[in-house]
Amino acid sequence: MEIKKVFVMGAGTMGSAIAEIISKFNLEVLLGDLTDDIAQKAMRNIEHHLQRKVEKGKMKSEEKDTLLSRIKIAHNITEASQADFVIEAIIEDIKSKKKVFATLDKLCPPEIILATNTSTLSITDIATVTRNPERVVGIHFFNPVSRMELVEIARGKKTSQETVVTTKKFAERLGKTPVDVNDTPGFIVNRLLIPMINEAIFALSEGVANKESIDLAMKLGAAHPMGPLVLADLIGLDVCLYIMETLEKNFGDPKYRPCPLLQKMVEERKLGRKTGEGFYSYRK
Ligand SMILES: NC(=O)c1ccc[n+]([C@@H]2O[C@H](COP(=O)([O-])OP(=O)(O)OC[C@H]3O[C@@H](n4cnc5c(N)ncnc54)[C@H](O)[C@@H]3O)[C@@H](O)[C@H]2O)c1
């Protein structure tokens, strides 16, 4: 079946960016959230983002209008029944996700894929509330969606091969490179990246080197585009801590113990760029 219309549930950071990228590839998008006000705010953010591209000469004004005309607000989740592919990008909360998936499963014909953008939750667990778990799959985009090429395609225990293949093709259609991954905590990128950041924070707190040296060492010695502490500030220290806690809880392995300095900084709301202060200061 040809995918023409995509329903995106959740119009926050990821949902709105996913809707925007889908619109670039000649697909219709229905974008829903808890209220119309939230979805409208997301539409304004998308418009603002596209307008910036126009101002920088990266996009024509007519193209911006065309993309915006392809994205419509879904006033109710029932509109998911019109879609050929569904992406859920609501908050990272298992109860909320299960509720949404149970509803989507009732609304959408069994051949329609229900994909989740979850970073840490189990695809298999989310799929337990559906009658057709074979069509439930992880489609993990990275932030910022417009720039990050990777999409992890996470296969739950009951996800069918057909679902995986169609979802990979869909990701490729959006100009992304999909990688297959089994349904394990943190998938590939967060499982490797966040413990590395956590270890950098241990190194800092143990006085191995100062923050500038740690970042410079990983840039020049490991060819990373930015150092781990700068990256932690960009991701958000609360997000890093949440992922470490999830890895520790799900694997039950002390090697994923969050660094006490990371916990302390989150308690102090030093979350990185978003609060103006993390390992570095972003106050103007
Ligand atoms: N932010 C990231 O860097 C990132 C990267 C990859 C994946 N993710 C994953 O993407 C998902 C969304 O993350 P985000 O950063 O966009 O969060 P966000 O907080 O920016 O947005 C979540 C949106 O979901 C809405 N929402 C909450 N409950 C809902 C419900 N029951 N029905 C419909 N909408 C509901 C909220 O109103 C909000 O607009 C999460 O699963 C997260 O783990 C996030």
Kindly describe this structure:
This protein is an alpha/beta fold and 284 residues long. 47% of the residues lie in helices and 14% in strands. The chain contains 11 helices and 8 strands. α10 crosses α11. The longest helix is centred in the N-terminal third of the chain and has 20 residues. The termini are far apart. The chain binds nicotinamide-adenine-dinucleotide. The site of nicotinamide-adenine-dinucleotide has 23 residues, from α1, α4 and β6.
CATH evolutionary superfamily of the largest domain: NAD(P)-binding Rossmann-like Domain
List ligands, each type once. nicotinamide-adenine-dinucleotide
Q: How many structural domains in the coordinates?
A: 2
Helical stretch tally: 11
**Strand order across the largest sheet:** 3-2-1-4-5-6-7-8
Q: Which bin fits the share of residues in helices?
A: 40-55%
Q: What is the terminal separation in angstroms?
A: 51 Å
Mean pLDDT rating = 97
Uncertain runs with pLDDT below 50, 5 residues or more? none
